[in-house]
Amino acid sequence: MPEDLSAIAPSVTLPCGTRFGVTDHGGGRLGLTAPEAPMPPHALIAKALSACERLTAEGPEVALRLEGPQWAPVLPQLRAQGIALACASGDFVLPEMLWQRPDLWLCHNAPAYPQIWRQGPHGRHPLRPPAPEGMLYRRHIPWLGQTFGLRALTMEDLPLFHRWQNDPRVAAFFEEAGSLEAHQAYLERLLADPHMTGVIGMLDDMPFAYFELYWCRENRIGAHYEAGPFDRGWHVLVGEESVRGADYITAWLPSLMHYMFLSEPRCARIMGEPKASHAQQLRNLARAGFAHLRDFDFPHKRASLVALDRQHFFETRAWARPAPTDGQPLRLSAARLLDKGDW
């Protein structure tokens, strides 16, 4: 999406050829008109979601108002699913609500797993669902012109994991350089651990990174703060030198956070514990919306406790590379629209 909202095209056309009309009302206020040709309600909703994703994936604050009679048959369903927000002046699709819907990005079902409690190393915690398999998440990154994807780690990734871990640049901070046998044992332990999930990050299906996702209550970090039952944490290893720099970090970092929030809708915070001395990583995390809470000590390192709040992530549209805040209230937030009844 262009930085200059006045340059928005009068329509958005999907790869299938379906065209939605776009009216620019100024200041990030866009009217979205459905195609005139009739189509089944489920098809209209699916295509409307794709059009809305394209209009909200990058750039400054934006809100979409559904305009025209073609929306009438699907408005009740759009409202019920939290896609459209009914206000006095119409029905609006807002990024902070749309991007909490899993439909466009998750590649597996993620209903709320039944909440059953069991004892763990830092008190009780919910029973965790089985680790997902296969493709987990896909998202087109407009400023790269590539698709970011996540898939579940398998033992077939051992040679890749072994090569990455023995890269001197990676070994300097991940500290897991070693033999193929040692890395095989590492992955076997991880795949058998219900509180951990190994994930491979890809661009256009080419692997470039390894992520470890974990539940904080069962993790070592759970001994250092009051972890919520669905708090999640993560570690990262970017293995390919070519996938480095701001354009890539602003693609994979918020997309990974997006996946972690979508795959467990009860997750209210994503935590991190980078080295307190890693100034560049802390700057990257701050730009991505993480708040620095305090520093603390693990046996092996001085760490910074950082947290990304779910509400903050979605309200600020962290996935869209928004400009730094100017300290002014959001103009097109759900709270503001509900209070004013208009945009």
Automatic annotation (TrEMBL):
<dbReference type="Pfam" id="PF13523">
    <property type="entry name" value="Acetyltransf_8"/>
</dbReference>
<comment type="pathway">
    <text>Siderophore biosynthesis.</text>
</comment>
<protein>
    <submittedName>
        <fullName>GNAT family N-acetyltransferase</fullName>
        <ecNumber>2.3.1.-</ecNumber>
    </submittedName>
</protein>
<keyword id="KW-0808">Transferase</keyword>
<dbReference type="InterPro" id="IPR016181">
    <property type="entry name" value="Acyl_CoA_acyltransferase"/>
</dbReference>
<dbReference type="GO" id="GO:0016746">
    <property type="term" value="F:acyltransferase activity"/>
</dbReference>
<dbReference type="InterPro" id="IPR019432">
    <property type="entry name" value="Acyltransferase_MbtK/IucB-like"/>
</dbReference>
<feature type="domain" description="Acyltransferase MbtK/IucB-like conserved">
    <location>
        <begin position="151"/>
        <end position="197"/>
    </location>
</feature>
<keyword id="KW-0012">Acyltransferase</keyword>
